[in-house]
Amino acid sequence: MTASLHDLRPTASPSLEPLVQLTAADMNAVNQVILSRMQSQVPLIPELAGHLIAGGGKRMRPMLTCASAALCDYTGSRHHKLAAAVEFIHTATLLHDDVVDGSGMRRGKRTANLIWGNPSSVLVGDFLFSRAFELMVEDGSLKVLKILSHASAVIAEGEVAQLTAQRQIATNEDTYLHIIEAKTAALFSAACKIAPVVAEAGDDAEQALEAFGRNLGIAFQLVDDAIDYTSEEATSGKSLGDDFREGKMTLPIILAYARGQEADRAFWREAVSGDRVSDDDLAHAIRLLRDTQAISDTLERARLYARRALDAIAGFSNGKARAALTEAVEFAVARAY
Amino acid sequence: MTASLHDLRPTASPSLEPLVQLTAADMNAVNQVILSRMQSQVPLIPELAGHLIAGGGKRMRPMLTCASAALCDYTGSRHHKLAAAVEFIHTATLLHDDVVDGSGMRRGKRTANLIWGNPSSVLVGDFLFSRAFELMVEDGSLKVLKILSHASAVIAEGEVAQLTAQRQIATNEDTYLHIIEAKTAALFSAACKIAPVVAEAGDDAEQALEAFGRNLGIAFQLVDDAIDYTSEEATSGKSLGDDFREGKMTLPIILAYARGQEADRAFWREAVSGDRVSDDDLAHAIRLLRDTQAISDTLERARLYARRALDAIAGFSNGKARAALTEAVEFAVARAY
Between B69 and which of A49, A152, B195, B285 could a Cys-Cys bridge form, CB atoms 3.0 to 4.6 Å apart? Predict the structure, then answer.
């Protein structure tokens, strides 16, 4: 590992492997908690939850909790239940998101709502969300409960704000950033911050890991929103142009619209309002995004937030954990290439 | 008030008024918390939440928290936030229920999902649920958090179990009781039990109020399920026969099916599987329910649970609070007449 803070080159081939290695033992324990606590006397619950939980997710958020604990030189095991709680909250929001978006594909598989129907996805999401709070209560830290209950409320607010902005061409970059900070960065941030809380690493460590998670979450979502226009289904696990067809006002569209000639702006207005959903329209949209540098500038902003994330944890002395987190950040922003 | 424990007569005209009077000052404070804490920077959230929260609900569950606190001679104010949290959890489940059932009417008004769409109802429900946990965390009692996070998980399990039993003619009374204990009685029970916790009234008081709430909740749901076949839209706030058309296996149908002749059983099989949804079919169903005493026996069971609820709180010395709760229980079972 020779990553340095200010050299986030698209030509590097960073990997999640160091993070996976660093957290392997912890994640075994976390996975045990996840599997045992998603059980229920009602068979549909583990069946549906297992489809998503076992279904190819990278477990990025609980890995971040574990890596943050390592960064704080924590040697206990309290973070295992809490990392599982974080994953349950994330899974609950995915189940509800897919209902909200009417999605049919997630991580390269058919979505739960497509297989079991929207009602089951809504209710099993509610179950996982409640179970997450039960896990936190078992741990017993009111500070952790405060961080994660607040994050959950912020996530829901972000999702409603995103719904409100959908098909609204006037959505600007500030509004977009506010939405992704809420719907994505809040949980990344909380997942990282709870580690110094259980490690009793102090206020500075909490603030540093809060900032690390928040900036990484923003970078992560920016890259996701770029990938929606650049990637193939086989690698992203979802269909190219999903956001386009749903009229989601992500940064690539916001930049392309702001920079476009009048004819292009007319195209975007029609597309966002739902009147341009063919494959030809998508191909035209991608051409416009490239011509206006909307994709490359979205990724440039992602790299900015990634740098901020790395600066936030520059003061921690655990070199191995810091190196693994650094390469994970680089991996997050390199996914789009 | 001259109600006695073992005289739950259908001819009495009990009222909620003593409960409303007993809890009026507390409920003013609770309503302040509800109104201030359903706010958000995202305008759709208070708009949608307010539709349901301001929309004619009796606030039965937070009133039960307040009355239970009075029963324990509690003079503090901690229960105000917690009663608001209970109402938020209840409102979140109503929002999600209406999405799950595809309901169009609730409390005599159009449902939120009909006005704002399913996505908004799902997400605002998630917000209220998270906000409920934030309120509990502010109070700071891990015991209360444990009671309500567990109740929330049980509610979700009950809702999934109900979904699984839908259109399944083989559903029996035990399964039905298990479902309503989870989806309805768990929150009644938790709403009552948290009062002796904040009042530090001791284990016996907690167990008594837990049993009171649980039995009242079961009675309440049994009556609700009878009303679905007996009441007019104007009084119940929902349409006659909603459960019938949705193929919900409630106790009236379970009893009528078990007691019916073969021709009647064939009718129920067709009805529950969704092949008998006309007004004539509903009229025929109601005749069969009456002929088999399915409605009156459902209500008789409700009275049994109501008696158990009253027996559970017989040992409390606060006569005014006990009288108000007693009449509220009588009111709950008298609604069907």
Answer: B195
pLDDT per position as a tens digit, B275-321? 999 999 999 999 999 999 999 999 999 999 999 999 999 999 999 99
Q: Which of A124, A135, A149 to mutate to test the interface with B (most CBs of B within 10 A)?
A: A149
* d(C-alpha A305, C-alpha A295), whole Å: 16
State the pTM of this model: 0.94
- Position A337 in a domain: no
> Of B126, B142, B163, which is closest to A137 when you measure between CB atoms?
B142
- Give the structural domain span for B318: 5-332
Number of separate domains in chain A:
1
| Contact residues on chain B for A146, CB-CB shorter than 8 A | 134, 137
Instruction: List residues in chain B touching A: CB distance below 8 A.
Output: 40-45, 92-93, 96, 99-101, 118-120, 122-124, 126-127, 129-131, 133-134, 136-137, 140, 142, 145-146, 149-150, 152-153, 155-157, 159-161, 163-164
Least Cα separation, residue A91 to chain B (angstroms):
13
Residue A286 belongs to a domain: yes
Provide the H-helix boundaries in chain A.
17-22, 24-37, 44-53, 60-71, 78-101, 112-116, 118-139, 142-165, 173-180, 186-198, 203-227, 233-236, 242-246, 251-259, 262-272, 279-291, 294-312, 319-334
Alpha-carbon span B288 to B291, nearest angstrom: 5
Whether residue A96 and residue B126 make contact (CB cut-off 8 A), yes or no, is: yes
What CATH number is given to the structural domain containing B108? Answer: 1.10.600.10
ipTM above 0.85, yes or no: yes
DSSP state of B336: T
Residue B65 lies in a domain: yes
